[in-house]
Design a protein that fits this description.
By secondary structure, the protein is an alpha+beta fold. It has ten helices and 19 strands.
Length: 422
């Protein structure tokens, strides 16, 4: 019996997870603390490290199974492994079996690229990626994965399948003497379906967003903002800023500082409802929506109202890297009193964001585009951005929501306000 591999602690109040993917197969050599499985929790993905250096023994649960904290999910044999140990009895018998002759019965027609269990394990293909490979006919061995640790994703397979390939020769035209064939039924194309279990993260997102709609009295107010002065400030100081702080000056720092300034005038936007009480926070913990490989996550910039531009930009960049690498923790996303979501990076012109309970408001940023506006009686082109503030009308009045958004507009259009606290 090897050394037991148990589900590690997953964070406060998290007691179970879903086994998303085995990263090793029986017989593989593993190093100390090398990830051997990936777990999906309500908030993040967590790797399970090997407790010792040795050989992966047995997987005791399957992908997609729910496991509790402390449960034994696998065994690892301590010590080095011989190459022969990695070959199972089935593989040995397959290697010894003679190749089929031409006289053998014809195999059933194959659709796509058939992948055996052994090949899928060797290439570390998840069930969803394996199905994508089989349906597209792409050879996974020749692809470079963009997922964690170089693993293939469905997007990698889709990109390879859509890449241009050599044209196949056209079929010869039928001779004039050939008998006319009966009209064939029209081709219907590929009408296959794929059924995939929702990840635990997606299930949690779906539940929380629906709960927000069912519980809060959601309303959205809109405004637009002239980004001329912020763009000019970035252009003027970006090189000096990066040289001094080692980080690029982005737009998000301006909006976080503007939100902190506006929240002082309209504290209800930074409050929450608990039972029949209103809880006002004297700090601003900003949840910043970040795109991750498995969905949108919202790590929290804590005490953002006390941070400098450089500290805010460094925190955002750090969370972005952790989201891409899949190393965000539950503590990174715990709490938050206000959310900022930037759909503009994906090209969104306008949207109505949904609050993240128990928060009471969320600010939506959108893409910047030149539009004609009237300035001093003249029609001029200016870089404009639509802003949207969704809020819980049970707590925040319309006057307060509009005032908050106007304060942000004023600070962005005149960034000097951020320095002199106006």
């Amino acid at each position: 019996m090897g050394i037991e591999v148990k589900v590690p602690a997953l964070g406060e109040s998290i007691t179970e997870a879903t086994l998303g993917q085995w990263l090793k197969k029986p017989g593989d050599a593993v190093a100390l603390d090398e990830p051997i499985a990936s777990l999906e929790t309500d908030k993040v993905s967590v790797d399970v490290p090997s407790p010792v250096a040795g050989t992966f023994g047995e997987a005791l649960v399957g992908e997609g199974d729910t496991v509790n904290v402390g449960a034994v999910i696998a065994t690892v044999s301590e010590g080095s492994s011989a190459p022969a140990q990695a070959m199972t009895a089935t593989q040995s018998s397959q290697a010894a079996a003679p190749a089929p002759t031409q006289a053998s019965a014809p195999a059933a027609p194959s659709h796509g690229n058939d992948i055996t269990d052994e090949q899928a394990q060797a290439l570390r293909l998840s069930p969803a990626v394996r199905r994508a490979v089989q349906e597209s006919g792409v050879d996974p061995a020749g692809l470079t994965g963009t997922g964690k640790d170089g693993r293939l994703t469905k997007e990698d397979v889709a990109a390879a399948a859509s890449a241009p390939t050599a044209k196949t020769p056209a079929a010869p035209a039928p001779s004039a003497t050939a008998a006319p064939a009966q009209a064939a039924a029209p081709a219907t194309g590929n009408r296959s379906e794929e059924r995939i279990r929702m990840t635990r993260l997606r299930q949690t997102v779906a539940k929380r967003l629906k709960d927000a709609q069912n519980t809060a009295a959601l309303l959205t107010t809109f405004n637009d903002v002239d980004m001329t002065e912020v763009i000019a400030a970035r252009a003027r100081y970006k090189d000096l800023f990066e040289k001094k702080h080692g980080i690029r000056l982005g737009f998000m720092g301006f909006f976080v500082k503007a939100a902190a300034l506006a929240a002082r005038d309209v504290p209800a936007v930074n409050a929450r409802i608990e039972g029949d009480e209103i809880v006002y926070s004297n700090y601003l913990d900003v949840s910043v929506a970040v795109s991750a490989p498995k969905g949108l996550v919202v790590p929290v910039i804590r005490s953002a109202d006390q941070m400098s531009f450089a500290e805010i930009e460094k925190a955002i960049a750090g969370y972005g890297k952790k989201a891409k690498d899949g190393t965000l923790t539950a503590d990174d996303m715990k709490g938050g009193t206000f959310t900022i979501s930037n759909g503009g990076v994906f090209g969104s012109l306008l949207s109505t964001p949904i609050i993240n309970p128990p928060q009471s408001a969320v600010l939506g940023m959108h893409r910047i585009e030149e539009r004609p506006v009237v300035k001093d009686g003249q029609i001029v082109a200016r870089p404009m951005m639509y802003l949207a503030l969704s809020y819980d009308h049970r707590l925040i009045d319309g006057r307060e929501a509009v005032t908050f958004l106007v304060r942000i507009k004023e600070a962005i259009e005149d960034p000097t306000r951020l320095l002199i606290d106006l």
